[in-house]
Amino acid sequence: MSQNHFTLSFPLKTPADATALATELPPLMPALFQAQDSIGTIHYSRFTILSEKTLLFLGEFDGELGPLLSEYAKQAGPTFDAIFQHVVDPPPSPVAANVEAFVEWVGEHLLKPINIYTAYPDVTAKEIKALAAAAGIDGTKNELNLFLVILPMKSKLAFYEVELILRARGHGTTSDLDKVGTPHFAQFVPLEDNQIGFFTVYDGGFDKYIEDFTKNIGQVFDLLFKFTKGAPPSPCRKYTQEFIDFAAGANRPPIGFYQAYPALSVQDIHALIADSKPQPV
Do 92 and 213 share a domain, yes or no? Predict the structure, then answer.
């Protein structure tokens, strides 16, 4: 698989710094998006405030992480300089003049996902954009949304048990998400304070996504909810509205949602890939 995911955790100095970043980050997003367009290997990215002590930066990208981080430092340094003013023990600034130190710092603050899902693992962001351009597709007709759900586990033991369950179900979860048909990417990520994050980029509206989700992958959440604080009733299929209400409450709002190809749904991309292959004669 040429695609990868990162979840970068920024430890914040005080709750006031979390509040400040919620205000300071949005105006910085146009410059960051422009830098990511220039880098060319990022599919999607977004920030979210996890808690009063942590900012998360998430992204899906092609290739190796090291070269990407170097490009982030060179092309998006001012964005990270602004963030690091609020961070405990940041690397030297300006970031653009201290690339190696930035890459090393990020490596120490990455959260390793339990598993990663991608709907189209064999194509890069550049290839997708090239296929769309060749097909004459432009504009922003597709509705893309984010699911940034935080599941608080009942205990440290429950946290470890859920990690084991999710690792064991890796291929099964991939198959279930394929059946949903609208997620582009998805990850389960272990977080602070015995929490598990479930992060997806998906097509369409929230309620419809959750309805399709509960039909195809609800059994996974039925299992996870046995270990989750304040979980809705199970099975999810039977209590869809309760699941929707729970998910809405556990969902974190994004700050800056970068989209390399916003006009394309999962099914659009699959069609473009299929059309690009030689047809049998």
Answer: no
